[in-house]
Amino acid sequence: MRLASLLAPFTLGSPRRRARLLAAFARAEHASMLDLRLAAAATPSPARQAAYLSHALDEERHARTFAAAARENGGSDPVLGDAEDLFARRGELGFLAFVHHGESRGRRQFAALATRAERLGDARLATTLTAIATDEAQHESYTGALLVELSGSEAGARKALRRARAWEAWRTFRRVGRAMAGVVWTVSMTLLYFALLPFVLLVLVARPARRGLVPR
C-alpha cells in the first residue's frame, strides 16, 4: 500500500498516464476472469465451481468498468487479457494461493489509488476504485478460507502463499529478463553498427566500387 501511495501522483497525475494505468487494470481483470472460468471448469467441487464463477463475473464487471474509465481519459488501447491457465499449471492449491495473494495486493493498491484520486478531485474515479477494492476484500476473504480448507491448516495456507509469492517473483524476473534481452540486443547491434561504420567507409575508399565488367 505504501508503494501504491507513493506512485499514485505519477500514475494519476495526467489523463494519459491515468488512461494507461486503467487500461492495464482492465487487461489484468479480464485475464483473471478467463483463468477463473477455466478453474471453475476444472475443479471437482461444485461449491468451489460456483465461487469461481461468481468471482469471474465480478472480474468481468471490473474489466468493463476500468476499460470505460480508460476511454473517458482518452485511452484507446485494447483491454483484453490473456488467460494463463494457472489452475492447470499450478494445481488448485497453487491457483488459490496465487489468486488470494493477487486479491490482497489489489485491495491495498485500489484503496491507495482511491485516496489519491479523491485528493486530486476525481470523485468519480475514487468511488469506482473504492467499490472495486471492496469487491477485492470479499474475494480475498473467500479465497483465504478455501486456501485453509484445501491445505488443511493455517500453516499449510501460509506455506502455499509463500510458494505463490516465490513463483510470481520468478515469473516477473523472467518476463523482465526477456524484455531486457530485446533491449540489450537492439542497443548492442546499434553500437556494433556504428563501431564498424568507419571500417566500412575505409574499405569503400580503398577499394571503390566499379561499374561495368571487371577485367581479370
Overview of the structural elements:
The protein is mainly alpha-helical. The chain has a single domain, classed as Ferritin (Up-down Bundle), CATH 1.20.1260. The protein is built from six helices and no strands. The longest helix has 53 residues, at 154-206. The chain is extended.
Key words describing this protein structure:
single chain; 216 residues; mainly alpha
**Any low-confidence stretches, pLDDT <50, length ≥5?**
1-8
CATH architecture: Up-down Bundle
- Kindly, what is the distance between the CA atoms of the first and last residues, rounded to a whole number of angstroms? 77 Å
For the biggest sheet, the summary is: none
Q: What's the total helix number? A: 6
Proportion of residues in extended strands = under 5%
- The CATH topology annotation reads as Ferritin
Count of structural domains: 1
Cα-based radius of gyration, to the nearest Å: 25 Å
Helix content: over 70%
**So what's the overall shape?**
extended
Which CATH top level class fits? Answer: Mainly Alpha
